[in-house]
Amino acid sequence: MISTKLPETFKAFAERECKGSSKLYESISLKLAEDPYVLELCSHAPLGQPVPNLLYGAVHYLLLKEKDHPLARFYASIDSKPQSPEAAFPHFKNFCAAHREKIIELLQIKMVQTNEVRRCGYLFPTFNYIYTKTNKPLALIEIGTSAGFQLLWDHYSYSYNKGTIYGSRESELVIQTEVIGKGKPLFPYSLPPVQARYGIDLHINDMRNEEDSLWMKALIWPEHQTRRELFEKAEQCMQQNQGKITFIEGNGVDLLPAIAGGIPDEITIVVFHTHVANQMPYETKIKLLETIKTIAAKRDIFHLYNNIRDSYLRLDSFVGDINDHKLVAETDGHGRWFSWKLT
Predict the structure, then answer these.
(1) CA separation for the pair 258, 12 (Å, rounded)
(2) Using CA atoms, how far apart are residues 101 and 223, in angstroms rounded to an integer?
(3) What strand order describes the sheet that includes 246-249?
């Protein structure tokens, strides 16, 4: 049965997410919203998953394996001179029909785990802000880590508004981000020390596994060449530094107390997640916030997140007897820019 919300979901996706970012997905989404066959196919996606991203990821994943289908000629990730996106939908529908069973299987077993490494552009000054509050090494716990790229934030170089280079100067991965608005974050020349890194997810995308790597590449929109290039460099960095991260498969909210309990008091705990909470049921969000408070009753802890209360990046700090809740930044979903609000 087709959900009555699906047509509006794809129309909203076209207007809010794709416009100005992906003409291909914008065009397909608007036509798909009126097509019962493809909408019915989407109904196989599990609750909680962003359906457009999941469907387009599944199709792109199969298309990267079968590049001779006519639909491939519309994908800039496959064809250097893609055809006009306005003519793509009939081929998209044909591809869906020809690969119906495979697409249904992918919708049911895969998850949207993009791991946008450019989001480290705003994590970098935020982790530095946290370090200045305690002057203790950091223990990072990322919920919904996917491949763990953001846990290696101190292994990348950073350039803001095409200015001075910060971070790891020798890194081949340079994250270029625009800082807009009046707020000015502090960019340190020396990196805060990281004592431990924990990446938790229901499924860890192992960059040593070709299938995991291909799925994550398929989630990158066809026109986004810069995202692909950053992904490939982050993938190389992860392959070189995999041993620095403790990866754990499971429910991050349930695992959090045990992990935090094993971290010494002389280390600052930072729990963080970006664009993950939107996939959590309301009850899970509440449980996560309550779990943080329970841990905070025994020790200092920071919680950095978005998509629980709203789309803004927020920081909850529990240091000593002081509980602080601050707005950090307004951010672009792909990390291309952010507006700093933290003081």
Answers:
(1) 40
(2) 27
(3) 165-167, 157-160, 174-180, 337-340, 322-331, 313-319, 301-305, 268-273, 138-143, 194-201, 246-249
Tell me the CATH architecture of domain 117-340. Answer: 3-Layer(aba) Sandwich (3.40)
- Beta-bridge partner residues of 158: 166, 175
pLDDT above 90 for 3: no
pLDDT, the chain, mean: 95
Task: Evaluate whether 339 touches 181 at the Cβ level (below 8 Å).
Answer: yes
* Nearest-10 Cα torsion for 333, 336, 339, 343: 90
Q: Kindly write down the DSSP assignment for every residue of 205-249, as one continuous string.
A: --TTSHHHHHHHHHTS-TT-HHHHHHHHHHHHHHHHHGGGSEEEE
Q: Where are the domains positioned within the chain?
A: 6-109, 117-340
51, burial (CB in 10 Å: exposed 0-12, middle 13-18, buried 19+): buried
Q: Could you tell me the CA-to-CA distances from 316 to 25, 220, 311, 322 in Å, in that order?
A: 36, 31, 15, 11
Q: How far is CA 243 from CA 113, 208, 240, in A?
A: 21, 12, 8
H or E stretch covering 298 = none
Rounded distance, CA 200 to CA 144, Å?
6
* Rg from Cα positions in the chain: 21
Q: Which two tokens stand for residue 28?
A: 């397909």
The single residue listed with the structure tokens 């025994």 is 298
Tens-place pLDDT, residues 329-338: 999 988 999 9
Assess contact for 4 and 206: CB atoms under 8 A. Answer: no
pLDDT in tens, 233-258: 999 999 999 999 999 999 999 999 99
